[in-house]
Write a structure and sequence with these properties.
EC 1.1.3.37; Oxy_OxRdtase_FAD_BS; binds ligand LLU7NYM2; 544 residues; Uridine Diphospho-n-acetylenolpyruvylglucosamine Reductase, domain 3; binds flavin-adenine dinucleotide; alpha+beta; 14 helices; mitochondrion; 25% strand; 24 strands; 8-stranded antiparallel beta sheet; 5-stranded mixed beta sheet
Length: 544
């Protein structure tokens, strides 16, 4: 344990009086991956066992501190910011056992997805579906409703069959679809507000590779296939990047190849053919053009044309095709480039073409008679507005594996209960960690985008940079939110796991719980983003 002399004496006495290790350090700066938010927790705690986690929660309760658990800090909002105690399970990420008959894998919840994928691969197993990256912790992925892009799957958490979680009384509980179902459905998407998830049992699949191809085309061609049902069903994994100014879309689609085919030599791995522009050159060119776009925003449509033309080709259709066969843990990922804001919403799949046509018409300031013009209906000005590309377009279907009847649908799952969901993710990069440019472009873009998403019956992805009120969330989730709140209140009546993000979006009303943290201030941080400061019980944490 490092020097904790900054703590009040009674807390140091409490810590010193227990034989259970308390692996806490001071002077830790927490920041999100995108460096959009940072905070200075009073303590940064890296436990190595369940008793240590239970002990940390009990101490927090006694010392009137809030506990925030952070995984890899990839959630782009202030969700993981705290001035109180920050717990991280990077030292609690081992695989505990693998049942070869059922492919059930039990692991400590701090394990990162890349580590899980590698360890599973060594025994011929895999994670069936991944999002764009594999840096996240398993607990973090579960807790925000992270998804990939496939109509065969819902949220990544649908593979979780059992959770062990330490609740506000500092004791571990085990839950599953059959045991403590209400708690299980709350813990399957809890945004850290229920307790510390310490262990999960995950259903893996036999290892597989992905044979994929990618083409770029006019967006109307892609919408046509969508409306005929020939896009999202064309392969197991399909994802689209839409370019609002060019009105083109890249379609990436991949199918699973059993690893036995690769091992038998019938299929060989091969990476895609790349050009001199791919890799470092394209990365830096785009970065610098985005930087320039902060000062001269009207170049952004040209930047889109140039950068993505260089990357995917200036010609449409088969002439742009790229193919490859890669292990699934590599094929399903992509390079997410630089710091960014991301605002992602879930809408009904069939509304996709309408959503993108209306957004394209608004962003392109199209007029009647222009190609691609539709009435967008967005009641916000688009004058002088220039935005970044692309909009990520992905799908999931949570009705395949999860449901209320099966006891495994998270109460806070933002996807549809009765069919496939489309995710639209509006990205605004932060070149060199600087907020995107002039004219308040990001906020104006997101205002129009969010209005459209609401108009199409959407709900936001919990992890991302959205705006909403608790009243709105109540209207979206209805009884499901009430059930989640009831479980939360019982699991953590003193609010040890509650912060302002939860109050603002999930709980509503004024903060009033004993250990709840409120936001005190936010100011510009050195190096960009916002430095977040909170307080528990009306005082700055460190003064209590
Ligand atoms: C570059 C990038 C790419 C991304 N790609 C995708 C994508 O393809 N699809 C998608 O859906 N999302 C994506 N995301 C979002 C990301 O998957 C989520 O934000 C995810 O939650 C991050 O995991 P983490 O381990 O970093 O969790 P954190 O961001 O650290 O924490 C997220 C939440 O989990 C809680 N938490 C963490 N550990 C525990 C625990 N042990 N017990 C209880 N609560 C816990 C935290 O308190 C917090 O509420 C992406 C984000 C980035 C930055
Ligand atoms: O949040 C996300 O960031 C990447 C895009 O860069 C992605 O796929 C998300 O989801």
């Amino acid at each position: 344990m490092s020097d904790l002399t900054h703590l009040p004496p009674h807390i140091r006495t409490l810590i010193a009086s227990s034989p259970i290790p308390f692996r806490a350090t001071a002077n830790h700066t927490h920041h999100t991956w995108a460096r959009t938010y940072s905070s200075l927790p009073e303590l940064y705690i890296r436990p190595q066992s369940i008793p240590e986690i239970e002990h940390a929660v009990r101490l927090a309760a006694q010392c009137r501190r809030r506990i925030t658990t952070v995984g890899s800090g990839h959630s782009p909002s202030d969700l993981t910011c705290t001035s109180s105690w920050l717990v991280n399970l990077d030292d609690f990420g081992a695989i505990l056992d693998i049942d070869r008959a059922t492919n059930l894998v039990r692991m400590q919840a701090g394990i990162r997805l890349f580590q899980l994928s590698e360890e599973l691969d060594a025994v011929g197993l895999a994670v069936p579906n991944l999002g764009s990256i594999n840096e996240q912790s398993v607990a973090g992925v579960i807790s925000t409703g992270t998804h990939g892009s496939s109509l065969a799957y819902g949220l990544l958490s649908e593979r979780i069959v059992q959770i062990k979680i330490v609740l506000g009384d500092g004791k571990v509980r085990t839950c599953s679809a059959e045991r403590e179902t209400e708690l299980f459905r709350a813990a399957l998407l809890s945004l850290g507000a229920l307790g510390v998830i310490v262990e999960v049992v995950f259903r893996a699949v036999p290892a597989f590779s992905v044979r994929w191809d990618q083409t770029i085309d006019r967006d109307e061609v892609v919408f046509g296939r969508w409306e005929r049902g020939q896009l999202w069903d064309a392969a197991r994994f399909v994802r689209v990047w839409w370019f609002p100014y060019m009105r083109r879309a890249v379609v990436w689609k991949g199918d699973a190849v059993p690893e036995t085919e690769v091992l038998a030599g019938r299929v060989s791995h091969r990476d895609p053919v790349t050009s001199w522009y791919d890799g470092a050159m394209g990365y830096y060119v785009y970065h610098n053009l985005l930087f320039l776009g902060r000062y001269v925003p009207r170049i952004l449509p040209w930047v889109e044309w140039f950068v993505f033309g260089m990357q995917y080709g200036f010609r449409n259709g088969l002439a742009s095709e790229v193919t490859a066969v890669q292990p699934s843990r590599k094929a399903l990922l992509m390079n997410c480039l630089y710091s960014q804001f991301v605002n992602e919403w879930a809408i009904p799949l069939e509304k996709g073409p309408e959503a993108l046509r209306r957004l394209g018409s608004w962003l392109g300031r199209l007029r009647p008679g222009d190609e691609g013009f539709v009435e967008h209906g967005i009641p916000f000005s688009n004058q002088g507005l220039y935005v970044h590309s692309p909009v990520e377009v992905r799908v999931s279907d949570a009705t395949v594996e999860t449901s209320a009847e099966k006891g495994n649908r998270p109460w806070l799952d933002p996807t549809r209960k009765d069919g496939p969901t489309l995710y639209l993710n509006a990205i605004e990069y932060r070149p060199y960690h600087l907020d995107p440019g002039a004219n308040n472009s990001k906020d104006r873009y997101y205002q129009g985008f969010e209005w459209l998403m609401r108009d199409l019956g959407g709900k936001p992805h919990w992890a991302k940079n959205f705006t909403a009120s608790a009243a709105e969330v109540e209207a979206w989730y209805g009884e499901d939110l009430e059930r989640w709140r009831a479980v939360r209140d019982k699991a953590d009546p003193e609010g040890i796991f509650v912060g302002p993000w939860h109050r603002r979006l999930l709980l509503g009303g004024e903060s009033h719980l004993e250990n709840e943290e409120e936001v005190l201030d936010t100011k510009s941080a050195k190096g960009g983003g916002l430095l977040w400061e909170g307080r528990v019980g009306g005082e700055k944490s460190k003064d209590v």
